[in-house]
Design a protein that fits this description.
By secondary structure, the protein is an all-alpha fold. Among the domains are: about 90 residues, Hydrophobic Seed Protein; about 55 residues, no CATH class. About 60% of the residues lie in helices and about 0% in strands.
Length: about 325
């Protein structure tokens, strides 16, 4: 799909408009070439001519729009490709949620905290995997409706949740494969989750994190790393270390759980003697429920049998009754 921009470099506005009329997907051909060929923009006449033809994008299907944007997103110089699309009006036409982030300040009047500029950098810093780059592109769209000015500065409370709901509407205009759509939504919704990690987290908390995110964890951590754009000395290094520590602790817990059973031997015997549950299939189901709770981080692993029996005692009577013959 890429083209050599040198062949279009001297095109007049009229010539480029004819080129786009023949196939509106060529907006993205040009954007992709900027993104994949060193960040070199076409001539001003090309940019100006294209900016007058964005109505042609109405001819494209939702799947074509997604394909076209994605072709730009996967380039090395994706920040330049995105900026060119924004300059000619493609972003405003097909991704108004992103256009709204242009010049939206995150901190006072510091230009490098502009949401659009931040977003382009996050996309550029992310791995060149389409689903991650889509997540990077859209992760902060919820900041537009949630921005609030307070005496302590600018806040964006709940922007991840709002952004996920905004994506639901966006995904009706741009056709994503089901699995990809779900993954992008997940990345938007949970893109702040790893930033909540602290070294003081217990193993139980690590298990909860893994249980909630495990199938998406690699992509989520990749986005988290890319989302570090601070220029404050040492801050980037500190956050990268924090993410690496979290990743390693998850691996250690998974490895530990795969080697050693999370419940102690004899827990079933103690349940029978202390709680009166007879040997039965339901006793096995009760132990499986305890294992599930341990896996999800709701119960601590590797405790004495009394810990699990005491937990059962503290549940409503109906809980234990459901496991009795």
């Amino acid at each position: 799909m890429t083209v050599d921009l040198l062949t279009l470099h001297q095109a007049s506005e009229t010539e480029i408009q004819g080129y786009l009329k023949d196939d509106p997907m060529r907006f993205f051909v040009l954007g992709e070439s900027v993104s994949h060929q060193g960040g070199m923009w076409p001539a001003d006449s090309v940019t100006k001519g294209a900016s007058e033809m964005t109505h042609l994008l109405d001819e494209l299907s939702p799947a074509q729009i997604r394909e076209g944007i994605e072709s730009v997103l996967t380039g090395v110089d994706v920040d330049e490709g995105l900026q060119w699309l924004q300059e000619v009006g493609v972003i405003a036409k097909v991704l108004p949620e992103m256009e709204a982030t242009v010049s939206l300040k995150q901190e006072g009047n510091r230009k490098h905290k502009d949401v659009w500029e931040h977003t382009k950098l996050v996309v550029k810093q992310s791995i060149r995997k389409p689903v991650v780059r889509w997540g990077a592109l859209l992760h902060d769209i919820g900041k537009v409706p949630t921005r609030r000015f307070t005496s302590k500065g600018v806040t964006f409370h709940g922007h991840a949740e709002v952004g996920a709901r905004m994506f639901d509407k966006l995904a009706k205009r741009i056709e994503f494969p089901d699995e990809m759509r779900d993954e992008i939504r997940f990345l938007i919704l949970y893109h702040l989750r790893s930033a909540q990690y602290e070294s003081s987290w217990s193993e139980s908390a690590i298990r909860r994190f893994h249980a909630d995110l495990h199938e998406h964890m690699d992509n989520l951590l990749a986005l988290s790393r890319a989302d570090i754009t601070s220029k404050i000395p040492g801050k980037r290094k500190r956050i990268l270390y924090q993410i690496a520590e979290l990743e390693q602790r998850v691996k250690d817990v998974v490895k530990k759980d795969s080697v050693k059973p999370p419940l102690p031997k004899g827990v079933g015997t103690l349940i029978m003697s202390e709680l009166g549950v007879p040997p039965s299939k339901k006793l096995g189901l009760l132990k499986k429920e305890l294992e599930r709770l341990v896996s999800s981080g709701e119960l601590e692993a590797y405790q004495e049998s009394e810990y699990y029996v005491e937990w059962i005692r503290n549940q409503p009577d109906s809980f234990l009754a459901s496991y009795m013959p």
